Amino acid sequence: MYSIGIDIGGTNTDIGLVNENGTILERCNLKTGSFTDFECYVQAVASEIKTMIGRNNLSLSDMEGIGIGAPNGNYYSGCIENAMNLTMRGVLNARKEFAKYFDCPVVLSNDANAAAYGELIYGGAKGMKNIIMFTMGTGVGSGIIVDGRLLLGSTGSAGELGHAIAVPGGRTCSCGLHGCLEAYASIRGILQTYREIRAEHDALHANDPVKEGWIDPSISINEISCRNLGNAANQGDPLALKTFAMTARYMGIAMANAVAFSSPEAIFLMGGPAQVGDPLLIPLRQAFKENLLYSFDNTCSIQMSQLNANDVAILGAAALIKMK
Ligand SMILES: [Zn+2]
Description:
Blueprint (H helix, E strand, L loop, with lengths): L1 E7 L3 E7 L5 E8 L6 H18 L7 E7 L9 E3 L9 E3 H6 L6 E4 L1 H12 L8 E6 L3 E7 L2 E2 L31 H4 L1 H19 L20 H9 L3 H25 L3 E5 L7 H13 L10 E4 L7 H8 L5
Parallel strand pairs: 1-4, 4-7, 8-11, 11-12
Antiparallel strand pairs: 1-2, 2-3, 5-6, 8-9, 9-10
This protein binds zinc ion.
The site of zinc ion has 6 residues, from loops.
């Protein structure tokens, strides 16, 4: 059997035809942002899917189902509920709209849950039963799998560890709360930490020599990306290293708290900031260890996602079809 994975993002919608082994046979994308009407959007996505299936000499009866990863995607209701970064507003009933074109199961969840399930079915968590996935990017998301099942909770949106409080009374988060993990460990949060560290440093040592590969203090702080910061940290830039060490501390504590909650065998990490490598991972593992209850010592590893960064969204969505 085959499945279709759809990742609905604010800018692009990625669609992939996936075989049983988790290989994406074909993919295409649409500009999500060019639609304001959800029915028209689903019609366009459905047309792409049908063309893709036909081009691969398959038919709709070969499809096990359609999995959708979307911001605020709710497994129970099948709706995308008031996603802030979509041009299509309100509560969008994805399951109902897709059912107009396909009679196979249509399963929807949020993107971090999809990533966690993708890791379980096709990635480094194959054969595991208890994992947590943290996604670091524009936001900080998480998906929790307990005893082989995706944790959905009473609302269908369990696993929002990015909005667990890391600093009481801290920075204002995109959600309106104060001090969420996301306000510190998302790309925006990491850049803010760097700006704070840099301002403190420049007030005292503005004329310190800068070595090759470090961030040049003459570059406007607003032009520095998380990738620039990661490259500088890997070249030994002390301010970039300090930024990732602080980020790592928040993430490590959040992970130790999460282990106390669901005792996973492994915590997986994905997203741009996680690709920085050692400048983040070494202090993260240290903070995790320091804050972990002794009875969980050596029970849970921290690993990078083993799915290709370009494939994870489609595979995660497609994996939702396998949900038990
Ligand atoms: Zn928040």
